[in-house]
């Protein structure tokens, strides 16, 4: 079983997803920026919460404009097609402005037949008319809704909520499926350009099966670790 | 992670609970969203690698279970192997196609790749799970006989399974062909009847038989064989094998088991030869008499003679030129006479009370017929009249009397051609109903050239007259004697026109066309070929355009030896006795 490991991962995708949430939670709390680490130090002391103290306005942590980032991703593609797909990917993004950017994404999938479908295949020779997908390639338009921070366990967490809308294709054995992707990706900003992101993507594909073209939808949650850098800063006039 | 959790726990309990709850709810919401929004509308379809059309047929004759299956042509045959489920030990066992009892490589069959395998004995896969429950094995899966294993370890169950039992899977009905030099096996293959192809070779050998008569050529009289086996790719029989009775033994080729053998009698076949011939009844020309009746009114004798020469003689000349010389008799020119019997020597003077010398003319014709001994004659009369006046009643009566008397002559066909002015139309001569030809050619005193054209048009379809020398039921049509062959019997295979009355065989008698009883063939006779008596059109003294030239086309078959033995036709039908069968083999022996 060549893809046994990935198959196991795909099989437990729901647990994996929950793990991602917990991991993001933990990491963002654990690796808060240094300048905010005093909050943790203060946590040793009795917590005093003066009135209106939390409603402070602070400087923006990281601007998106002219920022380029390289992302690695792990996750799953859930399509309800009797296949378990574990996904890992690489992405490249660049923001032209503080709101708009472009992204290029390649995802490799390890897809295996689900247990119930395997049983059907072993017993009756029947397989889903959908083909197992091996890779996705997409180009996306990125839109930054704004930026924010929140106090989480006495830590300040900075985040960028981003929307992505992409077009691409998926390779599924001998078939090529056109793909549309829409994602909400809350990105948690860490120090030194590092970031953690939870990509919650909806996929829509057209698959040309033996009975004709079939429209399919899928859910693709991916945990993304990224490193970004602003390519140049604007000169002051 | 633990540190982080501890750190987290050390924070405000309330905040932690709220946050975790929020995140978990968010995660669950996302999962639910994903789960509900993900939809692939999947239907299940047969895998290209899944065995399909799986057939298991148990042959009681061979005590073997023959298994056939297919996979889709898009499946890579090199990457797949197969296993069968042994119901006795309830285990899957590998299938080695090359080591089958009747091994065969996978072969393309339409849009599939086909496979075959055989298992000794009766192998049956129970489809009903109730059987398993009855044995206390609830939940055991029904295994469909054969499954395929992809090289990456994935297995594919069979899409379907059909199990059958049959008594016989192979047999034969051998018949000797090509003048007993070869045989055709006419092998029965059960699998072909159920649209399956079992690839295996066969081998044969001759075994002796105790049969001495045709009726004794039965399976029970076959003796055990001991000769060498020969592949059925060769079907040449040993020289002189017809010297005694034989049977044929057949078995499938295999080196794995001792195969079942079948044996059938192999009597010699009738040695036949197709023949073809055609026959056209001979034609003859009847004796043709010509005479002219000149009824002209021209005062100038010179002019009269000229017209007679140019018109009447021209007409007569045209007709005569289209009649064989030895078959024409010119009775000369005849003129009206006066009532007192004076011949109008001038020939061109009309007397109002003129009459024709009909009696003399008829007597003259009878004399000529008698003189020449003719019993088949045509009499052509040319009546010329240049007057616009109606023909006197007496002349009409004379002409009608003449024609009637001519019709009354035996074996005679009279024929009257009138060359007259248009005024004659008003008093047309009434001829007997039997007179099939009556032509009126408008009188033209001078125009010789246009007259030629008209004569051509008239004479060409009429002359010469013919008589077909054939009398139905009497004229014999002799069959062609085949060179170098001594026929014993023959059969008429095809006859056009199909008007056979009887067959005349020298020394044997006459046989009706429809033979009653078992014998459908006719004897050939000893020294002379048989002859056919047929019914054809009887045509006597018919004109050129009336003649229907009939041709008898006959296809027949002669038998040289073993006439009451089997034969096969081109459609590979086998008939037990050539003599007793009404049908022929064919033009060419297959």
Report on the structure:
The complex is a heterodimer of chains A (237) and B (590). Chain A has 237 residues and is an alpha+beta fold. Chain A is 19% helix and 52% strand. Chain A has 4 helices and 10 strands, in the order H-H-H-E-E-E-H-E-E-E-E-E-E-E. An 8-stranded antiparallel β-barrel of chain A has the order 1-2-3-5-7-8-9-10, surrounded by 4 helices. The termini of chain A are far apart. About 8% of the residues of chain A have low confidence. Chain B folds into 4 domains: 109 residues, Immunoglobulin-like (Sandwich); 99 residues, no CATH class; 180 residues, Rossmann fold; 100 residues, no CATH class. In chain B, the strands form 10 sheets. In chain B, strands 6-7-3-2-10 form a 5-stranded mixed β-sheet, with no helix packed on it. In chain B, strands 22-21-23-24-25 form a 5-stranded parallel β-sheet, with helices on both faces. A 4-stranded antiparallel β-sheet of chain B has the order 5-4-8-9, with no helix packed on it. Chain B starts with a helix and ends in a 15-residue tail after the last strand. About 2% of the residues of chain B have low confidence. Classes of the chains: A alpha+beta (237), B alpha+beta (590). At the A-B interface, helix 2, helix 4, strand 4, strand 9 and strand 10 of A face helix 1, helix 2, strand 1 and strand 9 of B. Strand 4 of chain A pairs antiparallel with strand 1 of chain B.
Search tags:
heterodimer, A: 237 residues, Porin, eight-stranded antiparallel beta barrel, 4 helices, 52% strand, B: 590 residues, alpha+beta, Immunoglobulin-like, Rossmann fold, elongated
Low-confidence segments of chain B, ≥5 residues, pLDDT <50? 128-139
Please give the CATH class of the largest domain in chain B.
Alpha Beta
- What is the SS-derived class of chain B? alpha+beta
- How many β-strands of chain A, per DSSP? 10
Oligomer: heterodimer
Beta content of chain A comes to over 45%
The first-level CATH class name of chain A: Mainly Beta
Measured on Cα atoms, how large is the radius of gyration of chain A?
Answer: 21 Å
Mean pLDDT of chain B: 84
- The level of helicity of chain A is 10-25%
Structural class of the helix and strand makeup of chain A? alpha+beta
Describe the strand arrangement of the main beta sheet of chain B, using strand numbers: 6-7-3-2-10
The count of helical stretches of chain B stands at: 8
**CATH topology assignment of chain A:** Porin
With strands numbered from the N-terminus, the spatial order across the biggest sheet of chain A is 1-2-3-5-7-8-9-10
Q: What's the helical proportion of residues of chain B?
A: 10-25%
